[in-house]
Write a structure and sequence with these properties.
Blueprint lengths: L3 E6 L19 E2 L2 E2 H11 L4 E6 L13 E6 L6 H8 L7 E5 L10 H7 L6 E5 L7 E7 L2 E9 L6 E11 L1
Parallel strand pairs: 1-4, 1-6, 4-5
Antiparallel strand pairs: 2-3, 6-10, 7-10, 8-9, 8-10
Length: 171
């Protein structure tokens, strides 16, 4: 089982102003608990022992974990997923790890299926059919293989799938 996860929470959250003026959008409470806290809770339930949270300098999340180590990494300037993952890379101690966006907190239910799908490969990412009007990453799919991933695109096609922001990666 995978023991480590990285949560990417360093974005500017500009589309959530004024609610996100002093906190990341994933820290806005929903039914009494932030999306980020829900993600931490759910990761603990599936056996993740160490969670690395990449955040911006002025928005350190307030999180609680029981029986799980939380490590906070500051990303001075949020410039994308690659830089956020690079900032966390020196703390990745296991061969495989999950990378997640905090607002897909229920997506952890797919982790076991992702592990099975990635058994003979270097990784896996969770995709679904494109949604009308939805922006984000799109993956080009050929059979069971993903041949290309594009971030922040607004197009679609028969071979395109929307990337849900849950990745199983290898070093």
């Amino acid at each position: 089982m995978i023991k480590q996860a990285v949560i990417l929470a360093a974005g500017e959250s500009s589309r959530f102003q004024p609610l996100s003026a002093h906190r990341h959008k994933a820290e806005i409470p929903l039914l009494g608990k932030s999306l980020l806290q829900r993600m931490v809770d759910n990761l603990q339930k599936v056996g993740i022992e160490e969670i690395i949270i990449v955040h911006s300098p002025d928005r350190k999340p307030r999180l609680f974990a029981h029986g799980c180590k939380l490590l906070f990494i500051v990303l001075d300037k949020p410039t994308g997923m690659g830089d956020a993952l690079l900032a966390a890379s020196e703390y990745l101690r296991h061969e495989q790890y999950f990378v997640l966006h905090p607002y897909h907190f229920e997506g952890v239910s797919y982790m076991n299926n992702m592990l099975k799908a990635a058994k003979n490969s270097d990784g896996c990412l969770l995709v679904t059919n494109p949604m009308v009007g939805k922006s984000g990453g799109l993956a080009t799919v050929s059979g069971d293989d993903i041949t290309q991933v594009e971030e922040k695109v607004y197009k679609g096609g028969d071979d395109m799938k929307y990337v849900l922001g849950i990745y199983l990666l290898s070093k």
